């Protein structure tokens, strides 16, 4: 066991360097972090497993870091031992606020870019955020060992962005370890040490909070001012709650309890609270006995941006769904949910998410970790609806859309930035225009790549925007967005009727211009997805009482008329058993059996490509004029 | 379990024999049967040696029945299917009939049928069969329209069929023709022509099958790749209604979903399958079915499941589910187990077994003196009910509630089904559930409705 000179609670701020790594998914952040741990000697070769810092299975599988971690890494340069605080940041658009808190905890940021891909939109937006936080940026190209790497070109691009020389861009390989030593030396040289007031009352920033089944909530903190001792009662300044002292410590990369943490240090505290909502990211910790006067700036509650209904296929699983959500909530302060009843789908929950990835992760965890078979309804955003009679409604679900005369509907907007190779500018513009985007500025990052800025309704993004963007740009474009105000818009609710019954789970709020396309495409899609049954099934789309599109699933005339002789009987019997099992997975809406896929059909209704759809859309519009 | 179980198990039903001949001149694009175009598959499994092997298997099966105390009545029917049975010399087919007769006896007036490809027979061949005890020929006509025959890869011409059916009729053989509808490119008119052509032959039995594509066949792959348009359910339904109308009008009534006959001319053999009787299957891949087999299960192996493998599989067993429970399997083959007089380990259940599919491996097993079964299953109570229902509902005589009650151990009455089963899919009367024409077309749905009711609570 190596002993270190700098002990937690007794480390001079001048020897501390806190930094984070900003990178796009798949650009190799975790691999680089692993090499840093290995090179510094805090993780032995034997214990090393790839992506040491990503703890959750789902993260490892997807290669995404959702929960950041903070590791204390010793690094000796020119005979002096420095203490590096390496803070891992989430890389996805949905976790912007968490990223901003992680940045707040650092003085420097390593901008890590894949030398085969170049910088992506989310990285760029995190970079801008880091610059706004006055962080020292250390640009690095990763994956230089790959044959397809083009470091010269991407170094020029980064230099152009940062106003540095291309030679200032370091070149490393997380895979081989090349350049990692130089990177750490550079961090020591360039990242400024923290400069908190070590004698002042304690102020510590919570930049992450994680549920551990054995220890409760582990709260990651960055000490800003003062010295926190292990036995002191602590106070959460925004929540106003006081907690008995639990354990104080540092991650190295296992959790090591310490007696104190001093200004500038990064570590963790365990208070005994049981869910992350009681230990909120962005909040400031101080001591009960000698509290600070002002909390650190920048705290806010996470706001759900996207809502979706989650229903168990088998309604008997409702209590299990509730239990599962309660468990996820322990570790996910941004997840909100309330019970919802759907005529079509029975009992479930209306859930609020930070964004689409957040939603995807939650539903995947529910099915993977809790074995739940779920139907999730199409995501939607929150609308503020004002009626002619002056009443106001907050609509998080199309089924809450009020009847009667609507005066005004306000929808949330986002500022989106898209980075794309220049040859796709045209198709990206078309796509954004199609999604009611207002173009802002456009900047060339390099002669080949541009960054385009749009203001768009969030509702347009939560549908299938990202998939379409990827397909129109052959996967090259990247997208980042953040909330940016709201606007009044001409929106209507489109209902879907099956056999004349309105199916609440299929209702959607869409722009009037697009309502016809939506109605036609949705009815067509359902006609494809719902298997033919013994009776004719009319499928209609309606705005209010006006039918705008109609399709019919013709009655099934024949199922199987195969031969059934001696050698066919076992196979036929097994086939019947299989069909029976398949039916169990169908949802009965009235007499109609509807497969689960139908409920997410609205996500991929897409544009009218074929002639029949175009004709029907035209007819629907005409009938309205 | 009755501790004094009688080791002689009386068969409660008629008994028939199916002999599979796994050879063809040419492989048809739609066919997924167990058949081969080579003349010699190795290991003695050649066309010329085939009758010898089949007869050897009959003896092995007969021994197995004896050891198990299964006493079957004389055969009521023998049926040669394929493949193309008539690819063998008529003398070989006759030799197999004689061998079966020696082993089990042949009921007076028994039905002896062979399938025939119109290419492979002539009047002399048919005369030989008639002399040798055959009573019935089933011709694979498929269509009377040349472009449809070509799509189906059939090598015969419509004229072949006429010549041979006439010859069979002259020899006093009952004859039937098979038709296929729904072939890619077949119009409703084409189909009408084929049905009319079949009627013009004045046969007293016609089978008509919707073309069913298996993805593993040549035609199945062509459809998957989009090179050929697959069969369409609505088109097939229209064609079914057409053939049903035309045949009924000509005096051939439906007696099973895909089979029509003049009264008394039904295929007795096939009706046996649908009534779920006992049959022995001989030849590679052939299935056998016995309603009551006493078999022993080694203590500790039964574990409340009647799904235990109850026979020895060969080392080439194809069914991994079955072979996985087999180590030194011979300890609990029915053969060995029943020689141990420990009745508390006995169980009686229906079983189905199937012969090893590959002719060479099958031949090796026969030559080694083993019943050449590749796999099988003990049929559970629920499965037995499922089979009784799905088979009974194919028949004009319908699903007998008496039979259903006997199988399920619960007394079923008409009133149980009247409200639950869609009235346009089936009629419930005379102690039977009989599919309407719509119920024939939507037979799977009808079966599901009846089973939902019957297996709930079993």
From TrEMBL, chain A:
Alphabetized CDD domains for the sequence: EF4_II, EF4_III, LepA, lepA_C
Matching Pfam families: EFG_C, GTP_EFTU, GTP_EFTU_D2, LepA_C
Species the sequence originates in: Bombiscardovia coagulans
Keyword Methyltransferase belongs to the record: no
UniProt function note: Required for accurate and efficient protein synthesis under certain stress conditions. May act as a fidelity factor of the translation reaction, by catalyzing a one-codon backward translocation of tRNAs on improperly translocated ribosomes. Back-translocation proceeds from a post-translocation (POST) complex to a pre-translocation (PRE) complex, thus giving elongation factor G a second chance to translocate the tRNAs correctly. Binds to ribosomes in a GTP-dependent manner.
InterPro entries: EF-4 (IPR006297), EFG_III/V (IPR035647), EFG_V-like (IPR000640), EFTu-like_2 (IPR004161), G_TR_CS (IPR031157), LepA_C_sf (IPR038363), LepA_CTD (IPR013842), LepA_IV (IPR035654)
Membrane topology designation: Peripheral membrane protein
Domain spans labelled Tr-type G: 14-195
Reaction(s) the record says it catalyses: GTP + H2O = GDP + phosphate + H(+)
Any one GO BP annotation for this protein: positive regulation of translation
Subcellular location per the Swiss-Prot or TrEMBL entry: Cell membrane
Keywords recorded for this protein, A-Z: Cell membrane, Elongation factor, GTP-binding, Hydrolase, Membrane, Nucleotide-binding, Protein biosynthesis
Top enzyme category: hydrolase
The protein's name in its UniProt record: Elongation factor 4
Keyword Cell membrane: yes
Coiled-coil stretches: none
Compositional bias (Basic and acidic residues): 611-625
Region (Disordered): 605-625
GO terms of molecular function: GTP binding; GTPase activity; ribosome binding; translation elongation factor activity
Its EC number(s): 3.6.5.n1
UniProtKB/TrEMBL annotation, chain B:
Source organism of this protein record: Bombiscardovia coagulans
Keyword Acetylation: no
Domain of life: Bacteria
GO cellular component term of the entry, any: cytoplasm
GO biological-process terms attached to the record: porphyrin-containing compound biosynthetic process
Domain Radical SAM core intervals: 9-256
Keywords: 4Fe-4S, Chaperone, Cytoplasm, Heme, Iron, Iron-sulfur, Metal-binding, S-adenosyl-L-methionine
Localization, UniProt: Cytoplasm
Chain's role: Probably acts as a heme chaperone, transferring heme to an unknown acceptor. Binds one molecule of heme per monomer, possibly covalently. Binds 1 [4Fe-4S] cluster. The cluster is coordinated with 3 cysteines and an exchangeable S-adenosyl-L-methionine.
PANTHER family, per the entry: COPROPORPHYRINIGEN III OXIDASE (PTHR13932), RADICAL S-ADENOSYL METHIONINE DOMAIN-CONTAINING PROTEIN 1, MITOCHONDRIAL (PTHR13932:SF5)
Family (UniProt): Belongs to the anaerobic coproporphyrinogen-III oxidase family. HemW subfamily.
InterPro entries linked to this entry: Coproporphyrinogen-III_oxidase (IPR034505), Elp3/MiaA/NifB-like_rSAM (IPR006638), HemN_C (IPR010723), HemW-like (IPR004559), rSAM (IPR007197), rSAM_horseshoe (IPR023404), rSAM_sf (IPR058240)
The keyword RNA-binding is assigned to this record: no
Protein name: Heme chaperone HemW
SMART domains, A to Z: Elp3 (SM00729)
GO molecular function, one term: coproporphyrinogen oxidase activity
């Amino acid at each position: 066991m190596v002993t270190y000179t700098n002990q937690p609670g007794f480390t001079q701020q001048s020897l501390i360097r806190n930094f984070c790594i900003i990178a796009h998914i798949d650009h190799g952040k975790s691999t680089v972090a692993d090499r840093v741990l290995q090179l510094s000697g805090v993780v032995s070769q034997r214990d090393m497993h790839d992506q040491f810092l990503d703890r959750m299975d789902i993260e490892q599988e997807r290669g995404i870091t959702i929960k950041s971690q903070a590791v204390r890494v010793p690094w000796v340069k020119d005979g002096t031992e420095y203490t590096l605080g390496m803070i891992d940041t989430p890389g996805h658009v949905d976790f912007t606020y968490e990223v901003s808190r992680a940045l707040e905890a650092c003085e420097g940021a390593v901008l890590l870019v894949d030398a085969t891909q170049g910088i992506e939109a989310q990285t760029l937006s995190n970079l801008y955020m880091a610059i706004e936080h006055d962080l020292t940026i250390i640009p690095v190209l990763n994956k230089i060992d790959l044959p397809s790497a083009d470091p010269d070109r991407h170094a020029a691009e980064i230099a152009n962005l940062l106003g540095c020389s291309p030679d200032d861009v370091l070149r490393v390989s997380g895979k081989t370890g090349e350049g990692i030593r130089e990177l750490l030396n550079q961090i020591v040289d360039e990242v400024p040490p923290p400069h908190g007031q070590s004698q002042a009352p304690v102020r510590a920033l919570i930049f992450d909070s994680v549920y551990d089944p054995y220890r409760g909530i582990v709260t990651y903190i960055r000490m800003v001012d003062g010295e926190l001792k292990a036995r002191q009662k602590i106070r959460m300044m925004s929540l106003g709650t006081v907690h008995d002292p639990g354990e104080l410590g540092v991650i190295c990369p296992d959790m090591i309890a310490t007696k104190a943490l001093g200004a500038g240090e990064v570590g963790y505290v365990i208070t005994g609270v049981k869910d992350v909502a009681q230990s909120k990211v962005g909040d400031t910790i101080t001591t009960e006995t000698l509290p600070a006067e002002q909390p650190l700036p920048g705290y806010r509650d996470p706001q759900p941006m996207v809502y979706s209904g989650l229903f168990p296929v088998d309604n008997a699983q409702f209590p299990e769904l509730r239990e599962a959500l309660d468990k996820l909530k322990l570790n996910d302060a941004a997840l909100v949910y309330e019970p919802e009843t759907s005529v079509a789908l029975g009992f479930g929950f209306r859930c609020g998410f930070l964004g689409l990835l957040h939603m995807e992760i939650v539903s995947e965890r529910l099915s993977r970790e809790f074995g739940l078979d779920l139907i999730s309804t199409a995501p939607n955003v929150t609308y503020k609806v004002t009626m002619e009679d002056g009443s106001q409604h907050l609509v998080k679900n199309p089924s809450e859309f009020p009847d009667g005369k609507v005066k005004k509907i306000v929808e949330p907007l986002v500022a989106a930035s898209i980075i794309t190779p220049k040859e796709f500018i045209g198709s990206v513009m078309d796509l954004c225009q199609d999604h009611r985007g207002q173009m802002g500025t456009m900047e060339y990052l390099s002669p080949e790549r541009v960054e385009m800025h749009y203001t768009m309704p969030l509702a347009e993004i939560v549908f299938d925007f990202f998939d379409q963007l990827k397909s129109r740009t052959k996967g090259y474009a990247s997208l980042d967005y953040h909330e940016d105000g709201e606007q009044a818009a001409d929106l209507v609710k489109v209902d879907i009727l099956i056999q004349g019954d309105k199916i609440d789970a299929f209702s959607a709020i869409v722009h009037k211009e697009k309502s016809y396309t939506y109605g036609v495409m949705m009815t067509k899609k359902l006609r494809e997805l719902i298997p033919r049954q013994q009776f004719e099934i009319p499928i209609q789309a309606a705005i209010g009482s006006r039918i705008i599109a109609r399709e019919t699933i013709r009655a099934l005339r024949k199922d199987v008329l195969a031969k059934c002789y001696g050698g066919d009987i076992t196979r036929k019997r097994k086939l019947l058993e299989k069909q029976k099992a398949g039916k169990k997975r169908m949802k009965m809406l009235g007499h109609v059996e509807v497969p689960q896929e139908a409920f997410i059909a609205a996500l991929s209704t897409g544009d009218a490509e074929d002639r029949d759809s175009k004709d029907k859309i035209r007819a629907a519009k005409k009938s309205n004029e | 379990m009755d501790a004094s179980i009688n080791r002689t198990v009386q068969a409660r039903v008629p008994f028939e024999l199916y002999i599979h001949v796994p050879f063809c001149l040419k492989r048809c694009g739609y066919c997924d049967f167990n058949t081969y175009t080579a003349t010699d598959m190795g290991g003695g499994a050649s066309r010329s040696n085939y009758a010898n092997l089949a007869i050897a298997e009959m003896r092995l099966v007969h021994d197995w029945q004896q050891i198990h105390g299964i006493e079957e009545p004389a055969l009521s029917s023998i049926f040669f299917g394929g493949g193309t049975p008539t690819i063998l010399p008529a003398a070989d087919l006759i030799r197999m009939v004689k061998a079966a007769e020696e082993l089990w006896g042949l009921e007076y007036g028994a039905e002896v049928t062979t399938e025939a490809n119109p290419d492979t027979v002539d009047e002399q061949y048919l005369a030989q069969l008639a002399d040798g005890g055959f009573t019935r020929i089933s011709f694979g006509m498929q269509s009377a329209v040349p472009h449809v025959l070509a799509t189906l890869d059939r090598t015969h011409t419509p004229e072949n069929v006429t010549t041979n059916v006439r010859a069979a009729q002259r020899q006093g053989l009952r004859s039937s023709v098979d038709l296929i509808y729904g072939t890619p490119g077949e119009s409703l008119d084409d189909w009408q022509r084929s049905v009319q052509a079949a009627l013009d032959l004045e046969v007293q039995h016609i089978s008509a099958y919707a073309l069913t594509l298996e993805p593993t066949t040549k035609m199945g792959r062509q459809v998957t790749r989009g090179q050929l348009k697959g069969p369409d359910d609505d088109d097939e339904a229209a064609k079914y209604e057409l053939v049903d109308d035309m045949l009924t009008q000509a005096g051939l009534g439906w007696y099973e979903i895909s089979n029509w006959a003049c009264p008394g001319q039904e295929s007795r053999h096939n009706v046996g399958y649908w009534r779920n009787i006992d049959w022995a299957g001989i030849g590679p891949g052939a299935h056998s079915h016995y309603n009551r087999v006493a078999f022993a299960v080694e203590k500790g192996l039964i574990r409340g499941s009647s799904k235990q493998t109850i026979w020895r599989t060969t080392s080439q067993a194809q069914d991994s589910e079955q072979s996985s429970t087999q180590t030194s399997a011979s300890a609990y083959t029915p053969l060995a187990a029943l020689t141990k007089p420990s009745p508390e380990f006995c169980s009686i259940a229906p079983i189905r077994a199937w012969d090893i599919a590959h002719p060479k491996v099958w031949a090796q097993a026969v030559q080694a003196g083993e019943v050449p079964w590749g796999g099988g299953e003990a049929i559970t109570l629920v499965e037995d009910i499922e089979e009784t229902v799905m088979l009974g509902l194919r028949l004009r005589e319908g699903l007998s509630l008496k039979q259903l009650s006997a199988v399920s151990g619960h007394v079923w009455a008409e009133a149980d089904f009247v409200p639950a089963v869609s009235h346009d899919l089936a009629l419930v009367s005379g102690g039977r559930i009989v599919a309407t024409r719509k119920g024939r077309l939507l037979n799977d749905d009808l079966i599901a409705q009846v089973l939902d009711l019957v297996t709930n609570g079993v």
